[in-house]
Structure formats: C-alpha cells, structure tokens
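We close this part of the discussion by returning to an individual protein. Part of our work consisted of pairing the sequence of a single chain with a tokenised description of its backbone. No coordinates are needed to read the tokens, only the vocabulary itself. The amino acid sequence and the backbone structure tokens for this protein are reproduced below:
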Amino acid sequence: MTTEPTIAANRDPLGQLLDTHSVVVCTGAGGVGKTTSAATIALEAARRGRRVCVVTIDPARRLADAMGLDAETARGSEAMRVAGPWAGELWAVMLDTRATFAELIRTYAPTPQQARTILDNTFFRNISDALSGTHEYMAMEKLYELHNDTRFDLVVVDTPPTTNALEFLDAPNRITRFLDHRLYKMLVTPSKGLARAVNLAAQTFLRSISRVVGAAVVDDVIEFFANFEGMEDGFRARAVAVRELLAADTTTFVLVTVPRRDIAEEATSFVTELGAAGISVDALIVNRVHPRFTGRSTDELHADLDRFIGTPLEPLVSSLLDAVTIATTELDHLASLTEALPDAPVVRVPFLDADVHDLDGLERLTGHLFAD
C-alpha cells in the first residue's frame, strides 16, 4: 500500500524557513498555485514581524488581485505597501521588464547622456520586453535590488513556470556568455586602428542583411550595441553577485506542485537539475490534495462494499472507496518527487471550497501552510 509522505517533526517547517532566511524562492509549474503560495508566505512573514516584499515574475495579475492592489498601479519597478493588521510590513511588486532594464542601463552607463541614447534607441524599445532571457534576467536584477533594499529584511519571489524557472536561475550566466560572445565584442570594439577594422567588419556583416530587415533597423542595432561600451564590467559584477545570492545559506527554495502525474514528473526533473547546480529544495508544498478520510486500504473498502451492496450504506461506502482511491493515486504520483526530496518537509493543502482571490483568502490559506 502506498504510504503518505512524512512531515518533518517540526510542526511549522515553512515558518522556520521564514525565521531563518532573507530570500524565499517559490518555484514550480504554471497553474499549481505558486503565485498564491508566494503571497501567503509573504503575508505570514509580515504577521510574524518581518518587513517583507513579494515580487511576482509571472506576468499574470493574480497577485495584485489577491492583495487588493490595482494591477496597473502595482505593475512597475517600485514596491507598493499593502496595508493590514500585521506586526511587520507587507510590500508587493509586479515585475516590469522594461522599467527594470532601463534602471539597469542608468546604473551602469558611464554618463547620463549615454544612458539616454540607449533608452531612446528604437531597437532597445523593441527588445526590452521580447528578447529571449530578458524577462528572467530582469527578474534576477529585481530580486538583487530588493534584497539590498534596507526597507526589507525578507524577499519572497514568485518565479516563472518550471520550464522557465531554469532560465530564471541561469540568467546571470547567460548575460555573461552574451558579453563574452565574439559578435558582441566586435560590435562594441572602439573605433581605433585595427580594432576599428574589426568593428567595421561586424557592421558590414549586419548591413549585408539590411535588404531583408531594412537599413534603419540595422543602424539601430549597431548604435544600441556600440553604446554599451564601458558597461560590461558592471553587468558582469552584478551577475556574479546574483549567483552568489542564489547559492547563499540565507536563500531558500520552496517547490510548489499538485498531485498530478505529469506535474510531479516535471517537478522531479527540476529538483534533479537544481541539485546538479548545487541548489537544494528545502520544502515542498502540494496544493489541491484530496482527503483520504480513513487509513484503511482500497482492498478492505472493496470488501466492505461487497457486504453492503443493496443496503442504505452502499452509496456511502462507495463514495469513501472513490475518495481513498483518488487519494492513493495522488500519493503514487508524488512518490518519485518525495523520494527525490528525502529531507524536505511536505506541506499539503487540501482542495478549498473557494478560490483564493483576496487578503481574506490568503489569511485562510495560512492556516494550511503554517502551524497555529
């Protein structure tokens, strides 16, 4: 018979993580309640006296709705305070890729004029939201910025869905690889002597495709990369700092999932890849769990059903058998995942009678995630 995952002796494992860490990274597949879990963790931290900011990387607007914030106002580069009767402070921010990218340009540009030139560039305005990896890299920047903001002593991060979460974690490495790429070096090489010849060669290559995309587009691309000259060291230093923050003892990873076979298999693969990167998952939240109601096996309940066929108790025993069968199947789906996380406590959240869409809903959810 499938056995239920064991919860660690600590009755409040998530609460202990909140008390001992400064960054909580919530990760998992899309649609498993990750955004809601991140918001609930942040709310509980505020109740415990922490000055916490929760940042959602998911472009959906569920977090703003749940916290009573206007979605358009909340989406931006500035954290907004959420009023409530808690001992600490609760803040929320919805990532604005373009605004975060622009702030980064202003930080590392040698002069304000150079920053303005880049920000006014048509190519920059087109790629700031769409360039592959930009969203994840800016998420890392926002995490680092909030972590170093003296207003907060805890940052809770709602990451992209699992397939993008690895990109989120690899974002610091990707920006470094980009800066070391031969074509990038050619585009930003100063226009002097032999270096100018190399730079011209790169421009010639780009202009050769101008007949396809248009000369104006190519000119914008060349200008954009040329204006990055002198900013590489700042980007590299920040990438190193972000990697160190993710690997720090003060950062903890919480995996959110549901007891569905495909989602659990995806989560198991993700745990393996995280482990290969030297990062461990410290807790597992399983949402939408069906209740078991009894410790009896399905075989025993089948025998009971045979005895009660044709009696008033038949539909009751049949319903109990169905519930136990579903719960047992869910445990089977989670078996590989819990085996991959032998030391991580498992916190199960049952199916709720209503969707969580406001602060009252988050308050109710804290009763399932945290001990009283």
The CA atoms of residues 79 and 93 lie 5 Å apart.
